[in-house]
Predict the 3D structure of the following.
Amino acid sequence: MKLPVRVLIVEDLPTDVELAQREIRKVLPQCEFLQVDHEEAFMDALREFRPDIILSDYAMPRFDGMRALALALQHVPETPFIVMTGSMNEETAVSCMKAGAWDYVIKEHIKRLGSAVLSALDQRAVKQEKLQAERSLRESEELFRNLFQNHTAIKLIIDPDTGRLVDVNDAAVAFYGWSREEMLRMRVQDLNTLPEEEIRKRMDDVRNRRKAHFEAQHRRADGSLRNVEVFSSRIEVKGKVFLHSIVIDVTERKQIEAERERLMTAIQQLGEIILITDTTGKILFVNQAFETITGYSPQETVGQTPRILKSGVQDEAFYKNLWDTITHGRTWKSRIVNRKKDGTLYTESATISPVKTPSGKITHYVAVKRDITEHLELEAKFQQAQKLEAIGRLAGGVAHDYNNMINVILGYTQMAMAQVRNHPKLYEQLEQVLAAAHRSSEITQQLLAFARKQTIKPEIIPLNASIEKSLRMLHRLIGENIELAWHPGKTVGNVYVDPVQLEQMLANLCVNARDAIADVGKLTIETDRVTIDDAYCKSHPEALPGDYAVLEVSDNGCGMSAEVMEKIFEPFYTTKEVGKGTGLGLSSVYGIVRQNKGFIHVYSEEGKGTTFRIYFPHHETPGKILETRQTVAPVKGKGERVLVVEDEPMLIEVTREILKAAGYVVVTATRPEEALQIVSSDTVGFELLISDVVLPEMNGKELAKRIREHLPDVRVLFMSGYTANAICHFGILDEDVDFIQKPYSVASLTAKVRSILER
């Protein structure tokens, strides 16, 4: 009850007013009273005082209770009205009650007034609650009718016991095509393509779980089928359960999704990169090829910009041209060198196009990229092979014809010399012709070797013994100023080559080394046996997996630049002065190696000497030529910590991956000072240091010395593209230092590391 209660008393006698107020305060202490005695004051009180209850005397000089009752019923019908009178018979009381009074109190029994007032107020509260409930029910029914009947969503009310459609809204009538009356004679089974058992099961699921969501196909009056999503829930009305289903037509969405799925499947399976950015360059989408090629997953990429691939090869003008092109609505096409997640560079052919709205506004950029690194490498190798093959065919043809002419010259010269023995001056001149012919014959033999057109007789021979037979000849070729060191490997074994060609190849390599040494120097010949694995072959397509005998010829001469190294095997290419070289020595070496199923690598830097490593397939004892070769599994580590120092980013990355996969904890540095900082700040320590011999800032030997100031017990493995013996000549390595030759295979590196750590 709202307090204070406002009580309007219609009475002309003050004493009666006081009595009424006293009785009411007994039951309602918090009250406000207003007394009036005529009609005008009564009407003002109804408007302004707004009483919660009205008490009125039945008969007054200027106003009477029945008139007050009539006015109250007209203006405030919900306000309780109690009649008070000094003399009232039963007939008068009945008339008042019939007229609309809530109660009456005889003044002689004024003590009943308090309970009458409380009763009237309680009745009023009950009546108000009932009216409010009825009003809420009407509003709720109206709201439900609007939500159901007029809602744009398709709605069905279903009886789960029979499947009958109890009610459908206007949207359902419009969607299905039947009239409302027709649909109310149908069952939900009439709309579905599913078996009735499945429909029954779904209705039971909704009945038991109170709500469900599923997809279906519904038929319409015109016979067409539509894909729909159904959201169904259980409702209960007066103890009866119904199902309220909202049906959404998803036919077009399904078609779009299916088309999108086909498109996405195609995009994901493309071998080319598909990359989509917004207008600021932020990446919104990449396909699977992006991760395959770059190493970055979509999770790492989305939200970034293509700058994560920036290699530094292109200058800012290159990228400015790119952005100027696409931001002006044009398509940009070019090649670009980017960097993968592992640090390796790759070249891609890229097309970047703007995506525009019908009005021409650019909303996105789409890039289609193809990794052409391998293609370019293969193209370069193919072009080089084509060039050498063409030159070889030409050289072979010329040498063949030229050799015939030399044979004629030799014959005639020798016959003429026999006839002019008594003419010393003429005889001496013919001797010079003969010598020139012999020299020309040697040149043709070198051309034939390059062209792989020599007649050869390969044999399975022990490599070390064959080289030893040539050492005396080689000493004479290089002269006394150059030291010749011979270091045969113990497990080299046999190779299948022509012994004559082997000697010819050795002679050419030694002469080349001699010419590279200005005055006094050292030439080293050594042999070894290595296993080439699949990982090595991926970066050296000329190699095949298997066991190889390696012949290595190193010098500490002037070395070569990268530009020179690209052409050293081309015939007639030479860096020597005119008259001091034909440019056929190394080209004949290349021909001999390839003709005998081998391959050759060259390592050189200007001012640091040159190393030729020649790989011949290893063979067992004569008569047992191996047709297949097996790779050697890497030797596993035991979690030791290894610090690798190498200034070539790609090589340091592959070394790290090899050792990590073998079970080591690997930390890398590209500079000696970086390595020293790592060691000085490290709190755990390292068991092994693997360092390149030639580094910026300081060499590998000095770095090892400085690191041992922090880690006295650390073990050291040096690596280089030069032979260990050649480097010894410079005093960089001590005799007891471990060394591994570049290039090394996975098996050779892990075996070497394991042997050092377990020594």
Remarks:
- Residues 79 and 485 are 127 Å apart (CA to CA).
- The domain at 5-130 is CATH 3.40.50.2300 (Rossmann fold).
